[in-house]
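Tokens for chain A. Residues wanted.
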């Protein structure tokens, strides 16, 4: 099968399309003929050598496609079913991929829209679960217009929380459409938030990693009310929890998101699609940032 791989760390130019042996699912896993695979910031961080030091490495954590092989014990899907989910081995950007966690693709979505969901939805749900976001209180989200941030806005609103979202002014109308009250980045942030919530907020989630953890701690009444998914160094410095999947992924979100999507209460736009052979260009766009929605590779 064709797959994305790199054998040295560096810029997008190190990415190659290579022939690799076809993978096969283990117990509880499924193999899909990949139709689309998501691109995430963690992809280019991995490619730069900021994560796993081993070489060579394949690419891709999330994909959508058609089931074509079942692992032992799998009874909830059948060959030919459309599913989306997480790669078992970080090799989703390929013609075939083994999924360790998966769910049926919501009927209204195509493969590209489904491939955009897993990482954003799981990350947002995990952070909201860890914060204890429920039907009461106000949640402040820093970086609310990106893929994870916009997912968190909608999921928190669906739980009944009041959401204040920090984003650039160009994205304020977008945030309002998702159910958030927008405020702008920059100097005076705390004052702008307090204009909406004079007593501060109950909880805060940092998705952008833009150095505002001290302000979030002040507004939320302590570091214990703040979680970041983007600022590891800041979390250590300020005593804030850094959310990772190491303590358990919120994979239950994959099976739950379909109902919200089909009822019109959740959407995650696909910003751009690229054929698999243009994966390097997708990395360049991802690394440049300022993308509203997900970048997706189309396969086949």
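Reply:
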């Amino acid at each position: 099968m064709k797959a994305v791989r790199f054998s040295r760390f560096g810029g997008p130019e190190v990415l190659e399309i290579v022939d690799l042996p076809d993978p096969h699912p283990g117990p509880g896993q499924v193999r899909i003929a990949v139709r689309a695979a998501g691109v995430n910031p963690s992809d280019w961080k991995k490619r730069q050598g900021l994560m796993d030091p081993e070489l060579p490495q394949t690419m891709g954590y999330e994909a959508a496609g058609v089931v074509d092989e079942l692992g032992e014990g799998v009874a909830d899907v059948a060959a030919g079913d459309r599913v989306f989910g997480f790669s078992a081995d970080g090799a989703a950007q390929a013609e075939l991929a083994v999924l360790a966690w998966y769910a049926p693709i919501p009927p209204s979505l195509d493969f590209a829209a489904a491939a955009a969901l897993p990482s954003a939805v799981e990350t947002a749900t995990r952070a909201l679960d860890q914060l204890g976001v429920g039907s009461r209180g106000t949640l402040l989200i820093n970086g609310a217009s990106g893929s994870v941030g916009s997912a968190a806005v909608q999921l928190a609103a669906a739980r009944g929380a009041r959401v204040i979202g920090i984003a650039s002014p160009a994205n304020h109308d977008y945030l309002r459409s998702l159910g958030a009250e927008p405020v702008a980045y920059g100097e005076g942030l705390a004052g702008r938030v307090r204009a909406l919530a004079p007593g501060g907020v109950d909880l805060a989630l940092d998705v952008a990693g833009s150095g505002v953890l001290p302000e979030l701690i002040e507004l939320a009444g302590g570091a214990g009310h703040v979680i970041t998914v983007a600022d590891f160094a800041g979390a250590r410095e300020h005593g804030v929890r850094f959310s990772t999947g190491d303590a358990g992924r919120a994979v239950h979100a994959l099976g739950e998101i379909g109902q919200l999507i089909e009822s019109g209460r959740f959407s995650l736009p696909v910003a751009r699609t690229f054929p698999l052979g243009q994966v390097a260009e997708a990395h360049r766009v991802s690394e440049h940032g300022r993308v509203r929605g997900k970048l997706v590779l189309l396969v086949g």
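The chain has a mean pLDDT of 95. The chain has two domains: 2-116+269-298, 121-246.
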